[in-house]
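Please fill in the sequence for the structure shown.

STRUCTURE ENCODING:
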């Protein structure tokens, strides 16, 4: 791998770097990158729309097969199989968020009514 230092910057060939990395180092890098918000967003766009919003896409076959062989095709199959469970978890998460917001709102109204009651000399 050739690295070049110029104007306070180091540049290198990313494919060369990957070629020199151990499997464990590659897996660590991939795991780190797979949790990056921008990467997750772009991959999610491909899963849903087959394209990123900037017009990029991963390779995928034109026809379905009994056994998917490409990365995006495999992910589509896995998402399809798990979609019921994923949807159920997301709906439950959203219901809990709404319930929590409703409880917070109710506590606010309860506090408001207490203060209003006290301001009115304890009368309703």
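FILLED IN BY: designer on duty
SEQUENCE:
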């Amino acid at each position: 791998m050739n690295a070049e230092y110029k104007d306070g910057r180091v540049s290198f060939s990313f494919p060369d770097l990957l070629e020199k990395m151990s499997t464990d180092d590659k897996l660590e890098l991939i795991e780190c990158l797979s949790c990056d918000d921008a990467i997750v967003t772009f991959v999610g766009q491909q899963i849903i729309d087959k394209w990123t919003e900037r017009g990029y896409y991963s390779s995928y076959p034109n026809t379905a097969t009994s056994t998917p062989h490409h990365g995006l095709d495999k992910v589509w199959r896995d998402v399809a199989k798990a979609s019921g469970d994923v949807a159920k978890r997301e709906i439950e998460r959203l219901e809990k968020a709404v319930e929590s917001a409703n409880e917070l709102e109710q506590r606010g109204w309860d506090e408001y009514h207490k203060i209003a009651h006290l301001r009115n000399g304890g009368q309703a």
